[in-house]
Amino acid sequence: MPLQHNAVLKVLRNPRYAGAFCFGRTHTIKHPDGSLHIQTRPQEQWLFLVQEVHAGYLSWQEYEANLAQLRANRQAHGEDRRHGPPREGPALLQGLVICGRCGNRMTVRYHDVKGGKRLYPEYMCQKEMIEHAEEKVCQRILGAGPDAAIAELLLAQLTPLAIDTSMHVYEELHTQAEAARHLRAQQVERARYAAELAQRRFLRVDPENRLVADVLEADWNARLRELACVQEEAEQQNEVEQRKLSALEQQAIADLVDDFPRVWKDARTSDRDRKRMVRLLLSDVTVLKQEEVIAVHVRFKGGAQQTITVPVGRGRRSTPELIALIDQLLDDYTDAEVAEQLNQRGWRTYEGKPFSAARVLSLRRYQQLKAHGTRLAERGLLSAEEAASAYGVCRETLMAWGRAGLLPMYRINDQGTAVFPPPDEHAPVKHAHKYQTTRSSCGRSAVCN
Questions:
Q1: Which CATH number fits the domain 1-73, given the four candidates 3.30.70.270, 1.10.150.240, 1.10.10.410, 3.90.1750.20?
Q2: What are the tens digits of pLDDT across the range 67-77?
Q3: Which among 83, 186, 188, 321 is most buried, taking Cβ atoms within 10 Å?
Q4: Among 150, 74, 147, 70, which residue's Cα sits nearest to residue 108?
C-alpha cells in the first residue's frame, strides 16, 4: 500500500517516534445529539509527557523542529504568514510585504490576462476590512513595480550581501550533510542490531537440533553480510559527501557574485526558487502608497535597511503625464531614442521595467500618436528619393552630402531611414565641392609660392 499524506503527518506529529510517552493529546466532547467531537490539545495541556522513555527514530529537538515547520507551512494558520512556504505565482514579495499604514501583513491577489497565460500580482491589506467589516481595504498596490524594483536592488546590492548569503548556503549544505550522515548511521545501527539478534538466536539453539541451527546460522550469516554491505555503502557515501562539500566550500564565495545574477535571470529558474533566494536576503518589505510614488522600505538579513521609491502602478494604463511626455519627445526623437530619454528620466512601464523601442511603439500606436517620421514630413522634409529629385542628384550623392555635413539629414526611425530639407539658397550644388577643392588648392599653392 503506498504511503499516504495523512499517514506521514500522523508520524511526524506523534511523539512516540521521538522516544516519548504521552497521554491526553486529545479531548473528546459529546454533544446532546450523541455525536462526538475530538479536539486536539496543545502540548502544554497534555496530561502526561515523559521524554526519552525508549529509543526514538529522532531526537526531541528534531521532533519539535518538524512541528514548527509544519505550523509555518500551514496556509491558513495564524495572522503573521512571513514564514509560510514560497508558493507558485510571480509575486516576488509574497509573505514579506508589510502595510506601511497599519503594520499588518499584506496578502496577494492575482489578475489574469490572456486567459490566465499571464498573471499580475496585487498586494492587499484587508485585515481591517475582514475583522471590522470596513468598506475599503487599507492599501492595495500593484506588485509589478515593487517586484521589479526589489529585483534590481538585489542584483545591484549583491556584493555587500554575498558573504551573508554564502554563509547561509554553507550552513545549509552542512546541515543537509549531517542529516544524511545521521540517517546512514541509523541504518547501520539497525543492521548491526539485526545481526546481533540473529547471533543470540543461534547461540541459544540446542546444538543437537541441527536443522534449526543450520537455518539460524544461515540467517546470522545473511545479517552479517547485510551489515558489512550497509557499512561499506555508508562509508563511501560519507567520503563522496565530504568531497562535494570541500569543492563547494572552496567555490561558494568566489562564484556567488557571478552565479546569482545568472541564475536569477535564467528562464529555467522558477518563481518559487526566486522567492526562496529573496527570503535568504530580505527580512521584510514595508510599502506605503502615496499620491504619485510608493515608498518601499527594505530590511535585509543582518540589519541593513534601504528605502527606495517606485512610481504608482496604474495597471496596464499609462499616466497622462507619460503620454504627454512621449508625444513631446516624438517631435525630436525616434522610438528607441524616446525610450532612452524616458529611462534616463526615471520612467518605467506598468510592469516596472525599463522602456524599450517596442514598448514606445506599442504605446504610440495605442494612443494614436504620430510617428517621428510623420511629424518631420509635416514640417516639409523630403524623403531620400524626393530630395534627390529636387536637388538633381542621385540618392548616393545625397546621402554622401548628409554624411559629410554639407546637407542637414534627419533620421525618422531606428533603421536609419533619412529625410532632408527642400533646396534653398544655401543648398549645395552638384560638383560644387570639387571646384571649391580646386580653388582652395590653387590658393594654398599661391600662398606657398
A1: 3.90.1750.20
A2: 887 776 665 44
A3: 188
A4: 147
